[in-house]
Input
Amino acid sequence: MNPLDIVLAIPLVGFLVMLLVPRSAEKMIRLISLGFSLVAFIASLGLAIGFQTGLAAEQFSTDVVWIYSPNIHYHVSLDGLSLWLIILTTLLTPICILISWQSIKARSKEFFAFLLLLEFGLTGVFAAQDLFLFYVFWEISLVPMYFLIGIWGHERRIYAAVKFFLYTMAASVLMLTGIIYVYNHAHTFNYSDILAMLGNGRLHFNNTEQILLFLAFFVAFAVKVPIFPLHTWLPDAHVEAPTAGSVMLASVMLKMGTYGLLRFCLPMFPGAARACAPWIVVLAIIGIIYGALVAMVQPNMKKLVAYSSVSHLGFVVLGIFSFTQMGMDGAVYQMLNHGISTGALFVLVGYLYERRHSLAIADYGGVATPAPWLSTVFMITMLASIGLPLLNNFIGEFLVLQGSAQANFHWTIFATIGVILSACYMLWLYQRVFYGETPDEVRHHIFDLKPREWVAILPLIAMMVWMGVYSQSFLPAVRRTTAHILDQTQVNVQFQVKAPASRVEVAHAR
Amino acid sequence: MQLWLIPIFPLAGFLLTGIFGRRLSKTVINSIAVGSVLLSFLWVLKTLAGLGDLQIAHTEQYFTWIQSGILNVGCDFTVDRLTAVMLLVVTGVGLLIHIYSIGYMAHEGGYYRFFSYMNLFMFFMLTLVLAANYLVMFVGWEGVGLCSYLLIGFYFDKQFATNAGNKAFIVNRIGDFGFSLAIYLIVVNFGSLDFGAVFSAAASKPESTLTAIALLLLVGACGKSAQIPLYVWLPDAMAGPTPVSALIHAATMVTAGVYMVARSAAIFTHAPAAMETVAVIGVATAFFAATIGLAQNDIKKVFAYSTVSQLGYMFLGAGVGAFSAGIYHLVTHAFFKALLFLGSGSVIHALSGEQDLRQMGGLRKKIPWTFWTMICASVAIAGVPPFAGFFSKDAILAAADRHAPWMYWVGVITAGMTAFYVFRAIFMAFFGEYRGKAHPHESPFVMVGPLAILALLSLGGGYFFKVPEFLAPIFPLASESGDIGPMAISIAFGLGGIALAWLFYVAKPELPDQVTATFGGLYKLIYNKYFVDEVYGAVVVNPVVAGSREVLWKGMDVAVIDGAVNGAGSVARKAGGLLKRLQSGNIRSYATWVLFGSVVLLLVLGVMGGLR
Output
């Protein structure tokens, strides 16, 4: 077993152990799940340490046969893209367990078990190198989230859970069709073999096939991202989900979509991807502006943050489909940034909810007076979210917009409007919740951060600063992988499309 | 030379007071906050002394900040003569204002919070001027905007203060929209953001490209430096404590746009159309804001519009090619406008918070130090020779006269209005009889001391600091025409403005009412600031918000998209209901369906076969 298998195994073992713990041992349930998630996090740090930035090839690879007929392998490995997403997952899981420590009272055993199962599924999604295995992990991650929303959610949880499930299920069935179609031609699910066959011409899709297959995968991922107009499950799911569910959903599950685009859509169907790019970019830009405008007028904090995610993920999609080195680097960085800062926003909104038991902005006001540190932490998170330099989102947005400017400056002009609007909705939210005179209900209910809450939020704040000030800790690994993906999209391109000839030039670090 | 130490001292001060401030005594907070700025000031002096005559820029590279594709952005600082001027102004004036704040803020809540924000501001402002590339400059640029937002909304329980803070941030974001687009265009065309690389290659680029970049930079500068059409945030920004108005909204941050234009002179000078735009915006803003200043009754609002107007002069200077004159005015303005704000702060302090000029009067005997220092600032801004404002304003007007006489004449008329509104405020506050109810008392020495130093700088700063000569290696001096006519005219207009103010507010106090009665409509127009805020609200803000709520959210999202999804869901349910009926469990009905299906299948196959 290599380190990656261990990272994958820990949450699964944790999940199985949780099933054996007696339901009444409330404290033990929490401690065990926290323990497993922390061990998984530490193990995943080992991946980062052992990761060789200079190598473009997959690392920590394990490839054993799982099912002989059809030929399905347990094939997992890491590259610069998977590495950080897995660490994001393992970082957020213990945080989610910490923030649910007291707020989850009913059926806590199942809740914490589901969180570990979710971690297992998400880690697997980012590690799988076999199309069928990928699909299995994809569906595994869907199930615990469905229950997290449906059991521990708020009033309209059933509606939201079913909507979430149907949306993503309908889309992933399309992806399954695509996977089976590919298998019927390639006679393997092994992703690196498929890419090799596409590269040397032994596997070939004609234009129509390529477009249809691309769309089958694209729609599945687009729902997950979500790309406008497939986003309406997101606000409902977020509002109804418990805090930990919102955090995992926003921070990690949305990245499954953008990860899939980068990992599968682009390398397998480069011609179709480039042909569709202008349309997808338009949808991305609509998402950026539309998401921000709708976020601006939401009366509910979680809905506001949910629509802001639509806007932020639009930047990621824009970066990917700019087909430039900077755009893709920025897109990957932005995926991580959004995971950190929007995750933190949901954590903080959760803190407010635990105190005041309301998500309506109108029920707040003047929170800064009784809870100065909570307000400060929220302020830093908000500033990260609106892309203030020296905090993480700025670097992602800058690279995405710069990449899109290399491709088509008009895209950049429209997308940059989103940067103005993000300040509008966030500052208005902050003003209405934290500033002003403090009503009595707020004064009686709101208190400042407790130690456990500090422990959960501080790592995220630290990451915002670290990623914003010293991106060289993270970007080199990403760069190697995105350059590789960009190379793959140059081969086997049958469509003549007006995309910029993006040479992979690399400036040297000082 | 360890340039990084210059901004690091205030950053450390920010972290210390920000994190531990609530547990620290005021003395400790004072020593950290003021001490960090003092250290930074001393380090600037030591650095400049060590760098010699600075004929060429001194650059230091620390670490790679962002690297991707062809782009490599370092965390780099540079010092040349332009930076040196800015560093001295920012740390020097900043230090005085920090000292003053000890007295001014003594009785305010959130003492530590105030000083930690002020120190953070110093960090970002110093980063802005030390930056060796556009992106690091943008760090400082956004950072000072943040601090401005935090300090405008310092009294965060007051709705008007937080509204003003939001307005400042959002309007600046609109400016930054332009700045960031300029940055993207620079990378696309130059492949780098380093000042050295960009400016040396600028001459070889097509004029259309440079014009686009310059105009986008100008959008950013208009936001930060409160020029038309983005000036609306600055008057509202006076909701912050007065030292903030002096430091951020008069002396340093708002001049960043002028600094940025001057820094990018290599781009602007190759884009004549953009230069012309800078000049026109500058002269229009100078005139327009001065007219509003004529009719304001809030002492800080008078000086706020005055700041907008004076920044217009600086833009005018830069736009007509006299970059060093623009920077010259930036320096002298920092002295006299900081003094005017700190002086009015002292007045407000003396009157326990009163800001309305109509509630003042006769204060010159009661707070003489404040009075005399403010007189120094007023003669300086009015352009009375040989005080500071005279030299710099004259340099700008002379350059404007060479470029386009109409700009000179608008500038001269504005100079007359400037003298009038400043002395109007002085006469209303300090002459005549006291009209208010408070018990005026002179401010403590810790406030008066900085006023005195700034007064000396306002008087002698123009004569002793020959900024254009110092900047000559960067911005060559224009040849003097030797014609003293234009200078004499502008002096005459300045003195005329003062005399008119004397006539109106000291000699014949009934005159103003007669004049406003005669020009009722016009007075109402400028008293209400031309209703620009209202127009922006009606044309931009309200339609966007209402459209987002009614059309995008409730219309598009809820009705159309979700309607379609739910509709598809209910269709599926109904279809399911129909299908359910098929599965009745009745063997005979199954048989019927099988028979029916077979017939249909046969028919279809038959028809298809027949078609072949």
Remarks:
- Chain B touches chain A through 53 residues (CB under 8 Å).
- The mean pLDDT of chain B is 88.
- Chain B is about 75% helix and 5% strand.
